Amino acid sequence: MQKDLHDFLQLYHSFTPARSSLCQLLERFNGNPSLILQHNVATLRAAGLDQKTINRIQAPSNRQVDADLQWAQQAGNHLICYNDNRFPELLRQIPDYPVLLYASGNPALLCHPQIAIVGSRNCTPGGAQNAFEFAAQTALSGLVVTSGLALGIDAAAHRGALSVAAGTIAVVGTGLDRVYPQGNRKLAAEIIEQGLIVSEFPFGTPARPANFPQRNRIISGLAIATLVVEAAKRSGSLITARLAAEQGREVFAVPGSIHNPQAGGCHQLIRDGATLIETAHDIGVELASLFNFVQQQASMTHAKHSATLDAEQRSLLESIGYDPVHCDLLVLRSGLTIDKLSSMLVELELNDFIQSAPGGCYVRI
Q: Has domain 308-364 been given CATH number 1.10.10.10?
């Protein structure tokens, strides 16, 4: 698995920055990155690749790959490939889903039902308060609040979820070695502690204007619905709303004063068919049947998995946790012999309860 991840990362960085064609290439070769790296120029050209990409594939730089793998060895850091069990199925359904997510924090949140709350960076105080309250109330109902860590409505939404000790996901348009905007550095640290920060961009990627519409498709793709709290008619939040509609997700908008230029985008969305939202209860009514279905499916899956484990296996699974842990530490935690532990780890991995991590570690899925 470590070799597969290394080869996948080599491919991933060979396709910088246009990675949409990487999905098609992986599908053509049955998701086998090692097989792609072994093919000759003629085969790769027949697969539709240009010569520059082929050159990068055949002479890869391991610098970025090694940096990725070293970063993933640190507690709380995760590389989540498109074929990883932790990769959210809802995101995989969008046409141009990302093939790799860099994630810091709790990756389990990715597979929880989410609502995206977005809006203007230059919001009014009332708009920020609305975002904060909507986020807090929807988080208490069981939805994970997802946004983009921008100033204004995004930041207020994240803070609303954090205020009720709930998880929140920030999808960013830079590498995870950077925080943009700088003014949200403290908020980013709080999100990593209590939630998750996600990016598809490699380390060193700065905040470029083109990154943010690309980032927005992930925000809407992760969520079952997108709520626009306050947005002008030319706001980037309307891109997220449009993407949500194209992805077949629900779009909600909060109306405002006709004299508030920051409300014009929301009014346009409502005219175009978005659901008008006045309270968090309205969201609950609109999403009740869908949310209950998602929760039931998650409960059934959890019950099915739990039923297949005996008491000893469940105890070991609890010992592993969601951060990488070395075999030596597992021997101490579980009290098992190394032979017994190795046998159980193989069985848990084959049944998709855990996966191996760099440095002889294992992590719970």
A: yes
